[in-house]
Amino acid sequence: MSKNNIHFYNLKVSNIKKLTNDTVSLTFEVIDSLKPIFKFKNGQYINIKHKINNEKIIRSYSIHSSPLETELSIAVKKIPGGKFSSYANESIKVGDNLLVSPPNGNFTSITNSNNSNKYLAFAAGSGITPIMSILKTILLTEKNSVFYLYYYNKSIESTIFIDELLKLKEKFKNKFILELFYTRSNPPHSKRINIDKLNQINQLIDLHTVSSFFLCGPQSMIFLIIDFLKNKTIEKSKIKYELFHNENLDLKDLSTSKNVSDVEIIIDDETYILNSLESNEIILDRALKDEIDLPYSCMGGVCCSCKAKLIEGEVKMKSNFSLTDEEVTEGYILACQSIPVSKKIKIDFDEL
Predict the structure, then answer these.
(1) In what helix (H) or strand (E) does residue 197 lie, and over which residues does it extend?
(2) Euclidean distance between the first and the last CA atom of the chain, given in angstroms as a whole number
């Protein structure tokens, strides 16, 4: 059994770089005593906890630096109405401290210097962020592998990491194949991803020769590509994806049970009881309402921050875009997506 490290640590912002008009890169200074805690794998993310106007905000952001580099950097794209993303783009200064959780996430690639693999990635907008970490790690580690990236943006001005990508393309000729597409420009780069484009890519690359697929972007794009790959009999284990957020989250009518349930929660060796949960009541929502400090971020089944082990009882999850099939089989759940089915439930955030 290992402890679920949900603690946040004060990290100083050591560098801020403007990537586009609405996106910044934040680099954190990790002191020596925290380096083992903040050791990360390519493609992982961190959570940031911050108070804005007396409201606690927790947000997940992907790491764009490679573990082979000497820094921990994330990209934050400003979104309309986004409280922290606006704060990050407009107010954060070098020297400021932020509460940051240790890296997490399964959207990673295991690299080996002996590999001679083909990798294919699709990214849209800020979905490039974790793929940058994966891409750089593979290029620097696997000298005989080839990485194909199809990257979609509204315009060249809004393309995050455009300068770095072009430099990598020049440095790793014939090993890094970059295709850029702009949905708001004139042809030939104005096409969105669709079945015809995927068929063209299949003719150029032969998808069955690809070792791993990495997809990051909006849900509609991700599911279109996944369905296409499945129809081409691509093994599910080869497809890794990460969503921006869950676009179709609706927990209504998920449960047909009329049970009232008691939920026992174990976290940090403490035990809490949620009494009389209704059958359509989300465990995380009720816990936060009862002022139990549980880990969470996206609230949409995407980031895996609220992962817990189901020790006793039965729950149903509306969505799951972050737990692997193996984790679900082993009894792990997402508290932000789980509603009670049985009358007694026990979940443990410490047993990971």
Answers:
(1) helix 195-205
(2) 6
Fold exhibited by the domain 118-243: Rossmann fold (3.40.50)
The SS3 assignment for 202 reads helix
What is 261-348's CATH number?
Answer: 3.10.20.30
**For residue 33, which phi and psi values (nearest 5 degrees)?**
-65, -20
Q: Do 271 and 347 meet the contact criterion of CB atoms below 8 Å apart? A: no
Backbone angles phi, psi at 131, to 5 degrees: -70, -30
Cis peptide before 67, with omega less than 30 degrees from 0?
no
pLDDT surpassing 60 at residue 253:
no
Backbone conformation region of residue 157, classed left if phi is above 0, alpha if psi is from -120 to 50, else beta: alpha
pLDDT for the residue 232: 96
The stretch 263-271 carries a mean pLDDT of: 92
CA dihedral 243, 246, 248, 251 (to 10 degrees): 140
User: What gap in Å lies between CA 123 and CA 126, rounded to an integer?
Assistant: 8
pLDDT of residue 58: 87
Domains of the chain, residue spans: 9-100, 118-243, 261-348
Q: Which two three-digit tokens encode residue 291? A: 């002022």
Measure CA 97 to chain center.
23
Mean pLDDT score across all residues of the chain:
90
Which overall architecture, per CATH, does domain 9-100 show?
Beta Barrel (2.40)
What is the DSSP track for 6-48? ---EEEEEEEEEEEETTEEEEEEE--GGGTTTT---TT-EEEE
Question: For residue 209, which phi and psi values (nearest 5 degrees)?
Answer: -95, 0
The pTM (predicted TM-score) of the whole model is 0.83
| Contacts (Cβ under 8 Å, ≥6 apart) of 51 | 57
